[in-house]
Specification:
2 domains; 44% strand; elongated; single chain; 8 strands; ATP Synthase, domain 1; alpha+beta; eight-stranded mixed sheet; 142 residues
């Protein structure tokens, strides 16, 4: 087993296409994996996982300190580090509910249009719909 740091933290990095969103030591992080939520503590086993649209929770002192919405991506975990490569990331507190509702309506319309066209990209439209639903759910939980 790898040595756990003296302050009992794991290095967490969240990277979006625009920037390095976050890089800091954390006590625990919970990631929305496609097979279920993954709690990551110092000393975690090696893992590579797909991330579904949802909320990453950063824990400190046994409580959620920060919540960040991600639109999917991949996570790589080692005993010392957790790196999430996200398609999109935004603090849950910064989500505008009206914009999230509009995004959901736009996604529903895009899915309908994609289904009406013979070569419509229904996979992309379905992914956007799931992302919009998860974003609205995150905004509603805030």
């Amino acid at each position: 087993m790898a040595e756990i740091s003296a302050n009992n933290t794991i290095e967490f990095e969240l990277v979006s296409p625009e920037k390095l969103f976050k890089s800091e030591p954390v006590e625990m992080v919970v990631i929305p994996g496609t097979e279920g939520d993954v709690g990551v503590l110092p000393g975690h086993s090696l893992l590579i996982a797909a991330v579904r649209p949802g909320v990453i929770d950063i824990h400190e002192g046994g409580e959620v300190r920060e919540s960040i919405f991600v639109a999917g991506g991949f996570a790589e975990v080692s005993p010392e580090r957790c790196t999430v490569l996200a398609e999109e990331a935004v603090p849950v507190a910064d989500i505008d509910r009206a914009e999230a509702e509009k995004r959901l309506e736009d996604a529903k319309q895009a899915l309908t249009k994609a289904g009406e066209v013979e070569d419509g990209d229904t996979d992309a439209a379905e992914r956007e719909l799931k992302t919009a639903e998860a974003m609205l759910a995150a905004a509603s939980a805030e």
